[in-house]
């Protein structure tokens, strides 16, 4: 799994941080998503998928290849 984020789309809701705090952070200055792991560990995959599904702005992209 490879994860990417688009800060131009991010609305700062923080749903990704709630779902997968070991993969995503919310910047204190602007509230936008910060990606901590482009290739998260296997135990985080379900949480990352949940984060992508619950992101209201569609700022998270997952590549399963």
Q: Can you characterise this structure?
A:
- By secondary structure, the protein is of the alpha+beta class.
- The protein has a single domain (2-60), classed as Alpha-Beta Plaits, CATH 3.30.70.20.
- The protein is built from two helices and four strands; from the N terminus they run βαββαβ.
- β2 (24-26) and β3 (33-35) form a beta hairpin.
- The chain is globular, with a radius of gyration of 10 Å.
Helices and strands, with pairings:
Layout: E1 2-5, H1 15-19, E2 24-26, E3 33-35, H2 45-54, E4 60-63
Antiparallel strand pairs: 1-4, 2-3
Total domains: 1
Q: Beta-strand level of the residues, as a percent range?
A: 15-25%
Give the CA-based shape. Answer: globular
Distance between the termini: 7 Å
Q: Provide the residue-averaged pLDDT.
A: 96
Order of helices and strands: EHEEHE
The main β sheet shows up as: 2 strands, antiparallel
Would you count the extended β strands for me?
Answer: 4
CATH top level is Alpha Beta
Descriptive labels:
65 residues, alpha+beta, Alpha-Beta Plaits, 2 helices
Brief account:
By secondary structure, the chain is of the alpha+beta class. It has helices spanning 15-19, 45-54; strands spanning 2-5, 24-26, 33-35, 60-63. The chain has a single domain (2-60), classed as Alpha-Beta Plaits (2-Layer Sandwich), CATH 3.30.70.20.
């Amino acid at each position: 799994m490879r994860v990417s984020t688009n800060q131009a789309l991010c609305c700062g809701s923080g749903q990704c941080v709630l779902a997968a705090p070991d993969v995503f952070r919310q910047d204190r200055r602007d509230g936008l998503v910060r990606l901590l792991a482009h290739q998260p560990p296997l135990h985080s995959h379900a949480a990352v998928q949940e984060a992508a599904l619950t992101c209201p702005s569609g700022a998270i992209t997952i590549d399963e290849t």
